[in-house]
Amino acid sequence: MRHRSAGHSSRGRAAMSDTYPIAPGYQVNVRRGPSTDSELVKVLPQDSRIPIRCQTYGETVSGPCGTSNIWDNIGPGQYVADAYVKTGSSGFVADRCSG
Question: What's the predicted TM-score (pTM) here?
Answer without folding.
Answer: 0.82
